[in-house]
Amino acid sequence: QLRAQNQVLKKGVVDEQANSASLKEQLKMKDQSLRKLQQEMDSLTFRNQQLAKRVELLQDELALSEARGKKNKKSVESSSHLSQEQKSVFNEDLQKKIEENERLHILFFEADEQHKRLEAELRSRLEVLEMDAAQHQAVVDSLTKKYTETIEKLQNDKAKLEIKSQTLEREAKDCRLRTEECQQQLKNLQAALGSRLEESLCIINEKVPFNDTRSTRYNALNVPLHNRRNQLKLRDLAGQAMAFVQELVTALLNFHTYTEQKVQIFPIDSATDTISPLNQKFSQYLHENASYVRPLEEGMLHLFESITEDTVTVLETTVKLKAFSEHLASYLGFLRKILPYQLKSLEEECESSLCTAALRARNMELHRDMKRLTAVFEKLHTYVSLLALPSTRPEGLLRTNYNFVFTNIAASLHGFHDILKDISKHYSQKAALEQEVPTATQKLVITNDCILSSVAALTNGAGKMASFFSNNLDHFTTSLSYGPKGGAEFISPLSAECMLQYKKKAAAYVKSLKKPCADSVPYEEALANRRVLLSSTESREGLAQQVQQSLEKIAKLEQEKEHWMLEAQLAKIKLEKENQKLKNSLSGHLTETIQEHSVLPNIAEQKKETTEKSLREPIKSTSLVRNLTLRVPIRVTNCSAPDVESREDLIKTHYMARIAELTSHLQLADSKSVHFHAECRALAKRLSLAEKSRESLTEELKLASQNITRLQASKDELMTTKRSYEDQLSMMSDHLCSMNETLTKQREEIDTLKMTSK
């Protein structure tokens, strides 16, 4: 086809060359005719010049004749008739020559213009035809070159495609053989599975009395698949929630306590004046806040402890959630109880003479915020009680509504956080205004700062809780709603409890089946022994240091023992001297008391009463170790030397026992400190080993990630090469289509050129 098209193009070029030659001949003929016309024009101009000269001569003759006529008028009169005739003849002849000359000038000008126009047209057409011929020649050359290249490329592609088709044919044959083998294997497997199915059906029909998965009541007792990762994740989330609840509980306790202090200080200080009965009642209720707030932390702790690795945690099995809901309800009742008093207290503060307009506006904003806070706690209690329903009454909350309840809890927590931010903002403004009051004390400023810090802690805790719940919303919805295989949900909490008991029994049975291998050491134990060997606290150096320290302590204790024995001997000598002096002084005092008793009986009675009171009241002696409370029997009337000695013996034995107890405690503390020091060294060694293992693991992880990236890159390269081959094939097909289109366009252009040349 390309050769035939090439021949057609050559014929078109030859025809165009012939047409250009004929046009050149026509141009030559036109040049000859133009030369003839120019010659005629030259002859006409010469003739016109002759006629112009003749006219000039005739005009001269006419002038001479007129001059002569003046001289001889008579002759003129006689010959006037003849001159008039000649003049008329000359005028007619001149007029004819002028008209002919004008006509010839017009014809010459028109012929000249027509010749120039025709010459320009022919020259432009000749240039266009020459340019077209050159372009056609260049197109023909480029097409021939391009077609030869495409022919060679197509021949190469044809050879490649033939080779590829042969390989594909071989692969197709192999695939046919494999399919035949797979069909044969499939037939064999179908036959084997059919026989096994018949056997299993016979066994089921003979051995299995009923299928418990068909009934939802029985299926609820089946143990679901255990997801250890899910349980660990839930326990981790429960631990985080418990930490957030602990923060909220601490902040709530501080908030209520400092609010109680604030009520007793402002607007009336209870230390200087009596506060109103309303604030007294409000303060009394706020004093009971710990009994309502602390159970929230305990309930969350019990809920966290109920979620273990071995249990199945769903809403039907989380029985402790009901207790947490009850604690939240009791705290909500506490908030409802103190809300009217709190609102009335703010209103009473607004009615005080110390309250300014700005402070009154802040109090009214807090008035609205406290109502909103109680409403948010009511919402939270409603949704938490709904979550606790599946563990008591499953029909109270369907599984399709779990997502709705969790979403509303997240929204309520975000609302709780927003309200606390407003409360913090309004409280800070209120505290700043209260500091400007002239009667503001330092105690009020400190209390306001404590309230602001507790509200800020509440705000931070609520924000953390809201973001935590929103981030794990999907996990809560999916993980707390799975059940037995083939069943939609648990029927009742009783069935869930039975399922957990069956799970424990199955785990115990499987554990009993596992027999330990006596020949080899378990892997975990070997790792533990290796760690103990690497970071042993009973190394030779550690023991040597401990022995040296213990020997030094023994030497110090021996020195202290000798010192205290000398001190005891000296104290014994001093005690004997003091006893002698006391005996002498007591004998003198007895005589004086007898005389005073006879003179002043009333004074003795008063002293007796005071001694009896002192006997009733314990004498407290404080020391560095602990508070000692001693009841010292004092007898005023009958005090004697043996009683004093016995009392001193009691005191001495007490202090000796106390000293022995303190020395034992000191020795115990020293031994514990040595033990703790050894443990710290061991932990430091373990930490260094763990750091080394972590570094090695990070290097291995980097190598693994590099291998993964390298494999991914090689995969991408293979995919790109595959795509490039596919793109090349598509480009070849597109190129062939475009070549056919260009050939058709060239044929059309050649036809149009032929038409234009014709």
TrEMBL record:
Subcellular location: Early endosome
Coiled-coil blocks: 20-68, 126-192, 540-592, 680-728
One GO MF term: RNA binding
SMART domains assigned to the protein according to its UniProt record, in alphabetical order: KLRAQ
Database matches in Pfam families: KLRAQ, PPP1R21_C, PPP1R21_helical
Region (Disordered): 68-88
InterPro entries: PPP1R21, PPP1R21_C, PPP1R21_N, PPP1R21_six_helix
Name of this protein: Protein phosphatase 1 regulatory subunit 21
Protein's organism: Promerops cafer (Cape sugarbird)
Record gene name: Ppp1r21
